[in-house]
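Structure tokens please, single chain.
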Amino acid sequence: MEFVLAQLGGFGAQLFDLISDPVTYLYLLTSVFLGIAFGALPGLTATLAVTILTGFFGNKIPLDYALIALLGAYVGAIYGGSYPSILLNIPGTAASAATAMDGYPLAKEGRGAEALGLTTTASFIGTLIGTFALLVFVWLLLLISQSIASPEKALLALFGILLSGTLMSEDLVIKGWIAGMMGLAMAMVGLDPLLSEPRYTFGWSYLLSGFQVVPVLMGAFAVPQIIECLRHARPTRMAKLSGRILPNLGQIRTHLPTIARSGVIGTGVGALPSVGEDVAGWVSYGVGKSVSKTPRKYGKGSLEGLLASETANNACIGGALIPAGAGHSRLPPCCGPDGCIPDQQHHPWADN
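Here you go.
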């Protein structure tokens, strides 16, 4: 308990230093707008935004500012994917696929401005819910993670893969499991991070570095979309914006149960390994449809469906950081609850 209180005290001091520093807001606003631009362009995902911006912020600015910038880009990209989903019926990111189900019908009805305003509010509330859960539960997982070794991590990853396959498969569950195992097999290609032994390279030097994120994303999402557009050659018109963009507080109050439920679902799904924002959005959308009093409106311009998807995929960000924060919060061997031994200062990630 003393260790947790000491960690909370240190966190509070660090948070105050960052809040009182005006440079923090410069990096935060810049990264959020860059993330929104990445998310609003179909084919450029949140993962790609973080991957590219890591090269700019990773080792050129202090670590605190770099983490703030990357997290801001991550949140902005997840939110930015809702713009083309609502206006063009083209999800900017995979996390916004469920948003297009009701966002675009609302835009065709002339309620695109209203949909964007509610989406912004739902994304903000969902991010707050995920952040609150991160601050509360990461300390509990911090204590639990100190007794978690490699076998437990492997089982958690396997559980996440099996669960994601179960949720994403519409007919046969085994199809989702096969897809998850294929992704796991692709992640194992290349040099072993501990022993530097080649794995599944089949003697090809090209596979020593494994499958890089950017080429795989471009080949899996961008290229098929371009080919599909060239086949049909059917231009998509952007819906016109009209009316008030700022959300009505009465609507927020009416749909507050949907927002709260979706925030909890998104946080819970995000805390599971190998499950991302797209799964959180679809799960929340499905749960909202099953408990709604008007399920027939889903897919035809339902505000409940729009709020369920956008709240969940943004709340998933904080949930996804819970196991990441707990996994990297274990103290090095030379450190204890009272800090590191002065003559044995040790970088907390040196052994990873």
